[in-house]
Amino acid sequence: MLTALVARSLASTEPKSQDQTTSPLTKALNYLEARANDFNEPYLIASYSLASSQAGLTDQAQRANIRLKEMAHAEGPRTYWALETNTPFYGWGLAGRIETTALVVQALLNQNTSDQAFREFRTRGLLFLIQNQDRYGVWYSTQATVNVLEALLSASSASQESGNSDSIEIAINGKLAQRVTLPSDRRMMAPLYIDLSPAIINSNNQIEFHRSGSGSPVGVQLVTTYYLPWRSQTEAAHVRSGGAEELKLATRFDKNEAKVGEEITCRVKVERVGFRGYGMLLAEIGLPPGADVDRASLETAMRGSEWAINQYDVLPDRVVVYLWPRAGGSEFSFKFRPRLAMSAKASASSLYDYYNPEARVIAAPGTFVVR
């Protein structure tokens, strides 16, 4: 897989005047051609297809694309390609699947064909990518986002001309809520953020988009934010999502009742279980309001972690620790002092994979009483 990634990079930069029989790119492609059939890994085969296409080896690229077609997974009106291992950039889970699918779509788009099946795979793959944006309008990880944007740019029609500005009317429950004027420029533009919350009612809501005029394709993403009350401490000990069964988080404070300025110690254990995923984890340890974190204790924890802790950030409501946990998990502790008298809950603590943020485990917050 790594060789395929390097070959793709070489194919986009190697001078065409170089002797093709002895070039590193040719040797790499020969190496990959002899081995690509032995692995059902779409990330590898898509990278090989792209490198072959850029090197002018259309027959090799087409054969690779036929294999990609055989590996497709249908999901309703969408199609995706499943990642069997981690990507060279540590991506796995949904983020890795998006990164892989975007690479496959690029490979299929490079093949000029009248085959309707190939065209359908490309369309369904693009739909999978578009419908899997995260709430920030990107695709979970840097490499996944880069590959998706390259796939979208490759798919955009070069023949489409800029037109006059048109608009979209947004109706909520049958009433006009917003009218949005779209830019006339057909280039990919920054998102326009529209707050629809004033028109949302405490019931079922129907949101409709009506477009006047025609122009470049427009993507629409709806993002909702809401809060649910924590259940009992036992029931809500952990909330998991996106493969977080592979992650473990335990936080323990030596006391939940203290005096103003009294030292409180927080002990943390994080662990990656099993063999899914590899790479950095982020542990966000929730703090009560007005906590004064002892940075010296964090420095001591980092030095004593044997490089398991890469760095940390202290935020007003949490401590963020960047970790490369060891087998069996990593443990560390730090100290803080409350500056205010209070009876309040801390922020929730969470642990998630840097390269697949959907894999997340959240620990319920504790209540602190400070006098």
Describe the structure.
The protein has 371 residues and is of the alpha+beta class. The protein has helices at residues 2-13, 24-36, 42-54, 58-70, 93-109, 116-130, 142-155, 295-303; strands at 73-75, 78-80, 167-172, 175-181, 207-212, 238-241, 247-253, 257-258, 264-272, 281-286, 291-293, 309-315, 318-323, 330-338, 342-345, 349-353, 356-363, 367-370. A 6-stranded antiparallel beta sheet has the order 6-17-16-10-13-12. Strands 7-9-14-11 form a 4-stranded antiparallel beta sheet. It has a 3-stranded antiparallel beta sheet with strand order 4-3-5, with no helix packed on it. The longest helix has 17 residues, at 93-109.
List the helices and strands and how they pair.
Layout (H helix, E strand, L loop, with lengths): L1 H12 L10 H13 L5 H13 L3 H13 L2 E3 L2 E3 L12 H17 L6 H15 L11 H14 L11 E6 L2 E7 L25 E6 L25 E4 L5 E7 L3 E2 L5 E9 L8 E6 L4 E3 L1 H9 L5 E7 L2 E6 L6 E9 L3 E4 L3 E5 L2 E8 L3 E4 L1
Explain briefly what this protein structure is.
The chain contains eight helices and 18 strands. The chain is an alpha+beta fold and 371 residues long. The strands form five sheets. Strands 6-17-16-10-13-12 form a six-stranded antiparallel sheet. It has a four-stranded antiparallel sheet with strand order 7-9-14-11.
